[in-house]
Amino acid sequence: MKLTYLAILLAGTMVATPLAVLAESGLEPTGDETIFFRGWPYKPDVVDDNVNRYNASVDGNVDYQTVTHGDYPALMEKSLIAGENLDIIYGNPPTAVRFYEAGWIAPADNVPNIDAIRDDMYDNASYAFSYDGKLLGLSYFLAVRGMVLVNTDRQVELGLQDAQPTNWDAFYDQLLELNAQGVKNVYMPHWFNEFYGISWAYIWEVLNRGGSQIDPETLAPALTVEGPAGETLRDWKAIYNADMVNEEVLSFNEAAIVDAFGSGRFLYSTQASYNLAVFNDPAQSQVAGKTSFLGFEGAGWGLLDSAMYLRTSRDRSDALDEDTRRFQSWYGYRDHEGNVAVGQRWANNSMLFSAYKSVMESDESKAAFRQGLASDEDYDRLLTLYANAPHPHMWKVVWAEEYNAFLRQRLGRFLINDEPVEKVIADLNAEIEKLNKKHGLN
After folding, report:
1. Does residue 23 or residue 214 have the better pLDDT?
2. Mean pLDDT throughout 435-440?
3. Confidence band (pLDDT; 50, 70, 90) for 25?
4. Strand, helix or coil at 270?
């Protein structure tokens, strides 16, 4: 029996909102002031088209531009500090928490149709998007980042189809065994040099092994040499020192690891789930129809990656503030015709999951997701991975982005310089203590 996403997440019954109610709420702009919308460079042509539809359909005044260079959260922070014209921006949960605490974004609790939005949202998404009792933004996407993709052709070639690892310990044991046998191009890790690269990889591996960066109650550092934190570093050191991963990976961007796995050379790679649609597309990949993944067998793979449309708190006229809230609701939920048009489009063309039941449980979405998978069996396996992907508690702490920047640099040095695990753990714990003191949290 096929399980729905709703059943897997153990969510409540979806409450349908009559389209007439949505239409009466009013989503068209009340004035002609410009709304400034900025995002990172993921399929900007699709975003441009969505914004153009809004402007044409309801006589809107939205100016969209893509932030194409540099570290997106850091660039947005500089722009917000400088008081630049920003009204709607992309943001991941830790970025949103930091920006909210700084007073730079306004919660989405007062956008049009907020009751319908809350009713339509899955519990795990609501948890990820909420802080201080407030919904920080509206759904852009959800994904599992850190799932282990498998080139099934190479898997069969190596006789491993019945020997799939079920947790990270077994995974690294298998990598090292294959390396000892002389097998090349076994693994392309998620160690690239972007804010969601190597640092996030460390966060999810520690989580998946049952550990945490911090104590969820006291926020004190919780990393230990003999626990999941140290185990992860020892495994990384082992494969790096065995020359299984080239140093150049540490300077890659995400596109580079996507291209590497799509070439068909590698057996495994840790990736974002939406890249399954790329790898199983014969126009974009050499492993189309041959890309599967390690399923959930009681121990997790990766974390819940998500992003929101955030509304800034810059000084605006009453009319512009109203129009910005209306656009946030139109773009981040239902449009003027009552359709979750933007969310459904991302599901259809990019295999991006949504926070909304109305998107995830539509026949349209199910058909689109299956097109990005190597087999029908992978559909339920993918939903199970989503249902068990954790949202890091530390992402609800104001210093999460600062720690992430430190972690990103520290892990690269650890590998390149072959530093002792004990030293790295001590440095990470010291950084957490320093950040708690800086923000008055200890």
Report:
1. 214
2. 97
3. low
4. strand
Is pLDDT above 80 for 22?
no
Domain's final residue, options 370, 387, 403: 370
Domain match, 298 and 388 both: yes
Q: Is 40 within 8 Å of 384 (Cβ atoms)?
A: no
Predicted confidence band at 246 (pLDDT cuts at 50, 70, 90)? very high
Answer yes or no: do 263 and 391 share one domain.
yes
Structure-block tokens of residue 38: 């900025």
SS3 content of the chain, % helix, strand, coil (to 5): 50, 15, 40
Run of H or E residues at 236? helix 228-241
Number of domains in the chain: 2
pLDDT surpassing 50 at residue 382: yes
Residue reference for tokens 């992003």:
307
Please choose, from the candidates 261, 286, 283, the residue with its C-alpha nearest in 3D space to the C-alpha of residue 272.
Answer: 261
Say whether 305 sits in a helix, a strand or coil. strand
Domain of 341, CATH number, reads 3.40.190.10
* Number of alpha carbons in the 13 Å side-chain half-sphere of residue 134: 15
C-alpha 260/C-alpha 276 separation (Å) is 14
Place of tokens 């946030």: 328
Evaluate if residue 363 carries a pLDDT over 60.
yes
Length of the chain: 442
Mean pLDDT of the residues in the chain: 93
Distance separating alpha carbons of residues 93 and 307, to the nearest angstrom: 7
Contacts of 12 by beta carbon, 8 Å cutoff, 6+ apart: none
CA distance 335 to 176: 52
* Residues 141 and 352 sit within 8 Å (Cβ to Cβ): yes
Identify whether residues 131 and 279 lie together within a single domain.
Answer: no
End-to-end CA distance of the chain: 50
Q: How far apart are CA 171 and CA 167, in angstroms?
A: 6
Structural domain of residue 46, as residue ranges? 25-142+305-370
Q: Rg (Cα) of the chain, in Å, rounded?
A: 22
* All residues at 6 or more sequence positions from 42 whose CB lies less than 8 Å from its CB, including other chains: none
| 22-26, 221-225, 322-326: least confidently modelled range | 22-26
* Rounded distance between C-alpha atoms, residue 119 and residue 110, angstroms: 15
Residue linked to tokens 């540099």: 70
Contact assessment for residue 122 and residue 11, using Cβ atoms and an 8 Å cutoff: yes
